[in-house]
Amino acid sequence: MKSTIIKNALLFLFMTAGHFLFAQIDKKATKETKILYQNLKLISKKHILFGHQHALEYGHGWKNEPNRSDVKSVTGSHPAVVGIDFSDFSGRSEDVIEKTKETLRKNVISTYERGGITTVSWHFNNPVSENGFYWKDSVSSPAMALIKPGGSHHKKYKEILKTIADFAHSVKAKDGTLAPMIFRPYHEFDGDWFWWGKKYTSREDFIAVWEFTVSYLRDTLGVHNFIYAFSPDVRFNSETEYLERYPGDNFVDMFGMDDYADFGRDGKYNLEAGVKRLKIISDLAIKKEKLAAFTETGLESIPNEKWWTEILLKTLKSENLELAYVLVWRNDSTNPTHYFAPFPGQVSAPDFIQFYEDPYTLFEKDLKNIYSSQFKI
Questions:
Q1: Which residues form a coiled coil (predicted)?
Q2: CA angle (254 as vertex; 84, 233 as ends), nearest 5
Q3: Residue 260 counted as an annotated binding residue
Q4: What domains are there in the chain, each with its CATH number?
Q5: 296 catalytic, yes or no?
Q6: Active site (annotated) includes residue 239
């Protein structure tokens, strides 16, 4: 107990003095973004935040209802981490882009003002073949080689990043501060289902696009409220394999991974493999003094009524993992079987309440002053 008190006191002194124990890749990051980064590191030592994709935009059988989420309907609290997506920021009409921006702007600001955290995925519509984000044989273009510096579509890519930067500059709370966001571009890049996947992109082109993306947003467009997350899927079994497309310590703040395959998809479980992979990213974050998170997981339709405590929670508590958050995927508003978090009456809801009540897991209600050096767990 005494060592914990001393450690927290030292962290407070460093933060209030304007010096930070763990350095972000953006030296000009806003104060709130820097403090969030430190507090996420602190949380990962003894707890984990729970997140849900699109939690506030829609849920099982509903959409666009103020201050509603399926997680809150079950537990009384929103998730601590709310996922949004920049998918409609390109490849759409100007009207759709602006409408999407406004909806997400309100979402991000309200989450920030409540004390929650936003993470952003990017199902990036192919900027060359313009046929969505999934790879389609004989239709899709291997666009990473074309949007990198010197590529035929590089100028177009810069315009798309400008749209993202404009949004990042717009998420201002009532007190004028910018809401920090965890930005997770090009996720699951080791797979072959997205056009930026490994099968369609050389290692060199992937790294070139990643480095340019971070540098252009941060250094040219002045975005200073992003924490940058790197998250492959599960096609790695060692640190070396995980880092095969790693752009370097100057371009990544957070190590993540997306893993559905080991956690019950198609009725198959391989928790030993899942824990091994989580241990790899946790150890990397400790070694490199960065963050780690379980950036996507879940079991569609949650037929296993004890999935939350017997599968997910036991995994997260194993091997002294240090993960800032775990995020499960979305609950579709119209598809009756496409959901990854429970809603009232769903078979796993009672077990989810036990998951919620466990001291190890933190939800939005548990967060006090997450954007302040006064934060306490």
A1: none
A2: 70
A3: yes
A4: 2-366 (3.20.20.80)
A5: yes
A6: no
